[in-house]
Queue: 2 jobs
Job 1
Amino acid sequence: MKTLVLIQMVPDLVEELIVDRDGTRLDSYNTHWVINEFDDFALEQAVLLKERQGGEVIVVAPAMEGVEDVLFTAAAKGADLLIRLNGDFEGEVNNHSLARQFFPFITQLKPDLILTGVSAHHRHDGALGALIAALADLPYIGYVAGVTVTDGKAVARKEYPGGIICEMEVQLPAVLGIQSPDTPPRYVPISKIRQAMKTAQIEEQEAGGADLSGGVAISRLIQPQASGHAVMLEGDLDQIAEKLVAIFKEQGVL
Amino acid sequence: MVEMVTQEAPPLIRTEEKLKSCIQCGDCSSICPVGYLMDFPPSKIISALRAEIYPRVLSSDSVWFCVACSACTAVCPAQIPVTTGLMTRTKEELLMEGRVPEELKKALESTQRYGNPLGESPRKRTDWMRGMEDRVPLLGNGRSETDILWYVGDYASYHPRVQAATRALAELLHLLGVNFAILGNEEYSDGDSQRLAGEQGLFEMLAEKNGRVLKKYRFNKIITTDPHAYNALKNEYPRLGIVYPVQHYTEFLAERLEALQPLLRKPLGSTITYHDACYLGRVNKIYEAPRALLAAIPEATLVEMPHYGANSLCCGGGGGGMWLDGFHWEKARTRLSEWRIKEASSVGANILAVACPYETPRFEDAVKTTGKAEELTVKDISELLLDAIR
């Protein structure tokens, strides 16, 4: 089985986010990029499937700051083929353009399963997986929390409110938007990543031009504004504790 | 016959020869403060290795109880390096298999990504010195030389509680007129606790990064806030070719007691007990300097706990324990820090003095969970000294 994992980088929320002067995007100088957590989950799910039933895991990621480390870490986890997609991904990008740039890999590589994170916190135009599935005319299931594959079919597990678990069967090839893998992503020791840096190769491919059509235009990007909904408790520690207990009782927590 | 020890040899192989000298006295397992919680305490691991059933050891995750306090190593009559050669190596085996408790994994990944286990931005490493920039010189930006390079460390830089102690030490250095500077945002985690949690590769990567930064500057000596950083710089970095004279801040201040003493005028009127940090005391034999500093505080009585000196009890934060609180509590419903607080309380102390950045937050939590908040205060020695000055 051939599994294609599509990864994108997202702004690192550990760093302070600064809005660019034009007011519609983040200041690129101050933005650090990290792997989208849901894409990391998708990678883990792909590696788990490979460990259970063999096959090949191919990872494609747009060329951005830190992406080599992400790809080598993927190799250390068990990815077989690493592809860096060269292009301007720190400028104007949305999920529609990214889907169009990822789509050729589906026709070229003919994967059985395409996994990607169910969402990315800096995108505003829907789920990447759903857009790719539409372009490739493949079925899509989003918010997947565990996958098994048998006889050319995947069973995707989804979680609903109230503790309800749903299992959906889908004919492969298919695209799945991963919310969480069967088990949390594994830790990869530095020594294994360094080993991967020595042995694994990153293939490079040029991305097509960015076609942003279908996405949303951002008119204004602003920091969250402080609103008047918070109640500040005044007084010394004992008075504050007393007021807090009264609020807890009023809300039925105590 | 001279035993050949190569830098490349993995710890377990280096230990194997020594393991043959184990007399199975069981002292290592008996003295281990968490040995009773382990499926395979140290002596049992050695037995498993001898019986060639070591994979059974790896079937259990109970080695994560080990806080690398080095009590087993100190007590071993055959001088087997039990902590680093056996326990850490076993953790390393689990780590290589990816079997790492989630909270430890997060700390290790944060260290990989940000250079500190707290997952904070490297750019915020100097946030603790806000408002005292005039008293804490930074290397870089034109300054490349200092007498004393203060390696501040992770928790001293980032942890909100520990930052207060860090600021106190900065004030003390300033008051003593020490020509010092810090690395600021160029500093990386020393990596010692990550090493003792089994992540040798990460430790070496951090050491290389710190080594490259240190090489840029000229200084006469390094002082550290953290006993783990002190241990790394003194005992581990030289193995990687990074060799500098290093002192823990308590040693450094104790050497300047003559200048410090006249400043200590304010009586504290307290009964103080001192907690020997594992990597200051047992591992590096620094027992007197912290006590000399505390003895210099006017109207303070120093009392010892049942476990002190080489027989001190770990706070529970070493060897990755700092990032395994949930694991320990979930499996054992007990905390070493609480045990220690009960000891401090039992000797009538109203101040527990510490000299390790792991300990202030750990013991302050334990003071609350044991209901001792009314009677016992936890303070870093640097804070106590400053209290006695102002």
Job 2
Amino acid sequence: MSKFLINRLLWLVPTLLAIYTISFLMVHNAPGSPFSDERAISDETRQQYERIYRLDQPLHVQYVMTLADLVTLRGMPSMKYPDKNVVSDLLAPAFPRSFALGLTALTVAALVGVAVGSYSAVRRYSALDHLFTGVTLLGVSLPSFVIGGLLLMIFGFWTQLLPAYGWGSVDKLVLPVISLAAFPAAYIARLTRNSMVDVLPMDFVRVARAKGVPGSQTIVLHALRNAFLPVLSYLGPAAASIFTGSFVIETIFNINGVGHHFVQSALNRDYPLILACVMLFSTLLVVMNLLVDLGYAALDPRIRYD
Amino acid sequence: MLNLRPWRGLAITLAIVLLLNAAVLYAVLGEPAVDPGSLRMSQGPEIATLDPGRMKALADGRIASSLFEGLTVTDPATLAARPGVAQRWDVSADGLEYTFHLRPDARWSDGSAVTAEDFIYSWRRVLTARTAAPYKYMLYPIKGAEAYAKASEAGDEVLPELGMKAQGDNCLQVTLERTTPYFLSLTSFSTYLPVKREVVEKGGEAAGDEQLGWTAPDKIVSNGAYVLSEWVYSDRMVLRKNRHYWNADAIRINEVRVLPMTSDAAYVAYEKGQLDMVTDVPALAAEALARRQAAGRRPDVYLVPNFGTYYYKINCRQKPLNDVRVRRALLLAIDKRAIIEKVGRLNQREAGSFVPPGVAGYEGAEAVERNVEEARRLLSEAGYPGGKGFPRLTLLYNTHEGHRNAAELAMQSWKQELGIEVALENMEWKVFLEEVQKGGYHIARSGWYGDYIDPNSFLDLFVTDGGNNDTGWSNERYDELIRKAAETVEKAERAAMLREAEQILNDQGPIIPVYYYNSMILVRPHVKGFSPNLRNEILFGDLWIDAAGGKGKAAEQGEAAPAGGSGEAMGGGQEGRGQGGP
């Protein structure tokens, strides 16, 4: 087990390095300049910008220096917001918000999704199962801006039951959490249902029943424990993407999170910020995937990492 | 009895997950305390910088003019220069020598005195190549400034003398390169604002000697009505009254909260009474608000004419657009009214020429009226009767719904009236800029806001090889007029020259002006002292809140227009100079 862990941790380094290298090259070859604007700046002024942001250095020097700035979390000034350091001023205040929002949404999604999916599988073809199937189909098909927009109209404007935008208190969190959780909840429900339908007729479930294990215990602790594995593999990458914010949800509910940076930094050609965002996401992704693998071993005794 | 033991593992796992989640929320949530007497405003997305020397956008300049005070201050009501740090000034008869008398009680927010040397340092800093100030040319009216900037860019060891001299702490003598009738207004512009040397040079730790990062709330020192107390990116900027400000007694609003928001959220917050002022209103809501304002039902809505023009530029380098007759045909055939009514929708004024109205003492060129007959005649004279044999042109715009709709209407005018086929092409903002700047277009969408209220701020765009003249158009007489006007002291004579230049622009058609920008500003009735103006200048220090007016809801509510139509980014927001959409 520890050997597996060390092995995996060592693999993180080349993986992240490869992602960094590809992103670095793509960013530097993107058309358009970070410093261009409707009002042209002189070539001399542009050269000064290039000096300030090291773009005048050979590419490999920039490659190494930017990597060092990111790895040490020292960061560097943003090109669009020169007063702000991309790590300490831009990502550091925004990430906790996206993370808190994403974690809550994901918890809600997992609880609701697994409960709905299991119920549907156990009471297959019941009226509720049909209803759930319909609702989850909607959940996976409707884009988040439609769900967010609808919730905003209904609860934020018509009934005014909940605040329409902003950040700071729990009631302001309700609408964005629901909008953000809708897709993963529906997806997890469908995954759980399919997987449970396969697992329920299996021998070990029947054995448990035959031994006289109570029904709920058979379903949750025996069948679901197995059926949860596909959900777990989905949760890893889903967590990475949800923790790093949703541009759409953040825009609709005016939440200052990282999702905004992912999109705006690319539009602004803000090289340091693009790279910082990409590395933040990739690091989360590989770490989450590692956690998923560890989770597998915990859930399924047949899986061993020797 | 139900055996609970087997459930223990699951229960513990769930409890840990939920507790963890609650702990994270507890750590992250929380709302800052707000001073009840504060002015809460939103001017759209976050500003780019608080370093006045490096500013480009109007929204940035607005914050700067409340944090820093120049020699003069542009009065929002009149747009004339009024005393700032300079309590009075003398101008020599030839208009070349300015002597500014600084008030002895002018202070930085750390209590130290603002001196003439501070201005000399700040202006020299802008002209120094390393600062990379995008608007350094605003200082070029000062004697030697342009030569200094060029020498600094070339890396010369010996730099030319600059026409500025301190006579003691409180007297600054400025010599100009040439008479500049609008020089006094320039001294209130962000590029001219003073910064404190020790603070700037210490800079931010991360950025070393690049003078970045000194604008953080714990480092910045300013000399205006307000000081920066908090600045959390895209969340809030809090300005507090500067107790060292010489006129602090006259400042009635103690705290200003500038809240970066999408225009949709800002509009909702305003209608709910959570904002006192909004300068970026979503397009759909703006249209409905404009109607109600016109009906006299929303006195809190200001529809403000701006000093800006929405136009198309024409690449004059290649056939058939190198033919004046073809360009004029395009200009005469376009239906501006339709674009305003269907796309602009804010009752914009049709642009008959490039310079927007509003400059005192300047009467613009004769407005170009739509004349389809004449357009057809010119086109056939150029060898394309009824559009026959006319090559297919492309109209390029940056990706944005409004620009697309406007372009479709332009295309329609040309097809219907002239029989010309024009294809539309959109590009993402940064790619669009690159294409246009290297001349890779036929016709391109454009916009321009004047930096100062003078026709020159528009007309000097189109001098031969001007940095912003992407059209390849060049006219000797035009260049000569612009050059001569800059040297002319007599106001009427100068205005006549500029008018002739603008007329040449109309006759030669390197551009197709469509409309003059309008913007909408919402100000709750209890906020007093607001004066709408061409440049959307707002000085927070000039405002006050009338407590009797209460902080109630807007004059009329419940009729809120749907907050749809998100303000898509066009690269820098509506008020980024020259970048605004329809």
